[in-house]
Every structure is written in structure tokens, then in C-alpha cells.
Amino acid sequence: MATIACLYLLLRRGNAFAPDVTPPARLRRWTAVFFAVIALGHLWYLPPVMLTSADAILLSLLIGALLDCLLTVPLAIVILLCMLQDRQRPLWPAWVMMLPTIVGMVYCIVTCSDAILPMVRIYLLLLGIGLIIYMVREVRRYGRWLRDNYVDLEHKEVWQSFLVLAVILLVFSIYASGYGGLAYEYIVQVCGILLVCYLLWRVETLSDLSIRQPLAVNEEEKATPENQKNLDEMEVFLQKRCIDTQLYLQHDLTVSQLAQAIGTNRFYLSQYFSAQNMTYNTYINNLRIQHFVSLYQEAAAAGRELTAQELARESGYRSYSTFSLAFKQRMGQSVTAWMRDQAR
Q1: For residue 284, which of 151, 247, 265, 313 is within the disulfide window of CB 3.0 to 4.6 Å?
Q2: Which pLDDT score, from 0 to 100, does residue 177 have?
């Protein structure tokens, strides 16, 4: 499975899971390498099955552990870092963090002893705790960055991925701390299958945020560049270039594109939203919800029956779940409850 997944990511140009999504090339390549290492891992843990000498088995297992410290664990960290697209983080710290374990495993191999393995395991435990704290902080920062720059967050958020991966790695860690037995063998195989399947799906369904979509507005509607507009004037330009033209209905409209449309830059537009104590995501969603309410009231007055899903699509949402969440945050109740109240 790991080999097939590796070849798929390297050789297939299209996207079998989400054809309309272009995944990050950097994440795709590193995940393919990770899958290749998982496949090879079965080879470097194969000798202990065939050996009979206790010393030879120990030496073989220590070599396998060294290769894991050199390749498997750092690559897992690299994949986590590549999922965060607010900036391109350096990847070499993943190997620097593993350097003490690499040195410890080399010492164990040279001395053919597992005497310091408890120390190596303690370090790995501390490293895991530190990595979890770091990733929680970075994922929260990444979420804020998304809401400051994007309105449509489907195929962009990653906190669910870290939660699922953390559960898989936790189960795998339970296996790694064990000392054999058939149950442990089943656990590691199940974890391997889940890891390959989930990472493959995650890579294919995560949008590449480095791709800049062209702004879909007419040339005569574009404002001339005036980067340092007064923040008090920003509302006027937003009314003219975003609300009156219904630009907010454009799917995947970014804060940079909106800034371009009103003739300023991302920095000053973000300053305006910050001064209003809101994010860009909140601003656009509020406009879309208002649009939905207007469409519903017009349909009700005309006696036309339209579903909430149809009205949500006409209000700029591709995902009904995204709309439903935004509606509840804006209106304080679910779409169904609100429509029921309106019908009374």
C-alpha cells in the first residue's frame, strides 16, 4: 500500500480524490518520500524474523531503530510542517531535533547494547511533548492567518488532520513501547494502513494556497492604486467596489484580491478590519448571510419555495456545512430554526 501510494503521488498528474483541488507540490513530494520510507521499513525490520542469535537480533533491531530516527520520524515532522502554508518553514530542524537519538542509537550499535535505550525513549517522549505544544501553537496561528486572508476555508484548514494523525501516532507509540506479541503486530499493521490512507487523502484534498487566482471583475470596475487610503474612507470604497458590485459572492475571494479591487493593499485593508474588531472572513461572511436573508425574504414574498442549500449557493457558498456554521455564528441560531421562525 505504501509503495502504491508513493508511485501514485509521484507519477499521477491528476487528483483522483478531489479533481477540483490542486494540492501543494511540496507536501505531495515529501509525502511520497515518507511512503517510500515506510515501504523500506518493512525490509530493514525483516532480518530479525530470520535470525536466531539474540545478539544478531538485537543488532538488527538497533539498526532498524537508527534508520527510523534518520528517516521515518524526521519525515513525519516534515509532513506536519508542510501542511502549514502561512509561510514556508525550514525543514532541516526536523533532523536537528533527532540528532541526540541518532547519536544514542549509533552508540548502541557500536557497543551492541541497549543500556541507554531508556534515555533515548525519554528524549523521544520529551521531543513528542514539545512538538505537540509547538504544533498546537502553529496550527492556531495558521487558523488566524486563514481567517485574515480567506473567506472560504474548505480544503484549507488542517487542525482536524493533526488531531487524527495524533491519534494514529499515539496508538503507534503504544506499539513501539511494547515488547512483542501478536497483538502488537496487528496494531502496527492497522496503524500503517490508516496512516497511508489518511495521508493520501489529506494530501489530495488540501488546496495549494500559493496559487493566486485572477480577480473576476471587469477592468472598468477596478479602482486605481491608492495604497494609503485613510481607514475612515475604506468603508466607502468597500461599499462601492465590494458591496454594490456583489464581489463578496465570488468564491475563494482573498483579502489581497479585495484590496486590489478597492485600490489599496492587503496591509491597509487588514488594518481596517482589525480596527473594526473583525477578521476578513467575518466581514465577507456577514455580507453573504445578509444576501441569503434578502434572497429568502424575496422568495417568501413571491411565494417561491427554495431550499436553504439553493439559497446558500446563490449567496457564494459551495459548501453548505460552511454556510451553516457561518449562519449560526452570525444569527445565533441554526438555519432551520431561523427559517421556521420566519415562516410563523
Answers
A1: 151
A2: 57
Three-state DSSP class for residue 192: helix
What's the DSSP call for residue 220? G
pLDDT digits (tens, 9 = 90+) for 36-57: 999 998 888 888 778 888 888 8
**pTM for the model:** 0.82
Neighbouring-strand partners of residue 254: 150
First vs last Cα of the chain: how many Å apart? 56
Residue carrying C-alpha cell 515488547: 179
93/270 Cα distance (integer angstroms)? 32
**Bridge partners for 150 per DSSP:** 254
CATH number of this structure's domain 220-343, picked from the four choices 1.10.645.10, 1.10.10.1100, 1.10.10.60, 3.30.1330.60:
1.10.10.60
CA distances to 158, 270, 334 from 277, in Å:
25, 11, 24
